[in-house]
Amino acid sequence: MTFSHSTVAAAAGALLLLSGVSAFAADPVHVRGTVASVDGAKVTIKTREGKDVTLTLGDNWKVAGVVKASLADIKQGTFIGTANTVGPDGAKALEVVVFPDAMRGTGEGDYGWDLKPNSQMTNATVSNPVQGVDGQTVTLSYKGGEKKVTIPPNVPIVTIVGATAADVKAGAAVFMAAAPGTAPDTFDKGFMAVGKDGIVPPM
Question: What integer best gives the mean pLDDT of the chain?
């Protein structure tokens, strides 16, 4: 089994799926939940909606780890991804992924996302100085546009690291972007973000 990556550079290619840029013929399905069981290469995930979905991990799967980061890691020039909603007071972050430099440019743009109703995913470079640690409005610049997003206090902020097959274990929180399988609630290939040290992938 070679679905895992031990370096951030290798995870960069996998994260193209997370951003919605899919190598699959069909649109990827997003699954958020907790690993219920692992039986060899077979993994069962209990989704946040209470359903069980199954997948067989193999060469057509990629995985990366998700660990805690902080607002202090977000600086002018940092490339981030943030699911956000737009309301009367502007865009507010629901979560933030601080991308390592090796992943700069992953899924760049502003497009629809399914974390919450009417949410967007904005992957872009922070173009203004970031000050303070109790919430901050950042200006995000991407090809063809710009967006101001407020990062409220207590919003989950994470970054991406390498992971191995051993990280996919019962109780681990995961986010998947995957291609539907031939049977209901099964998946043939895709990308899995696995929370480490008790972190829940917030994307």
Answer: 84
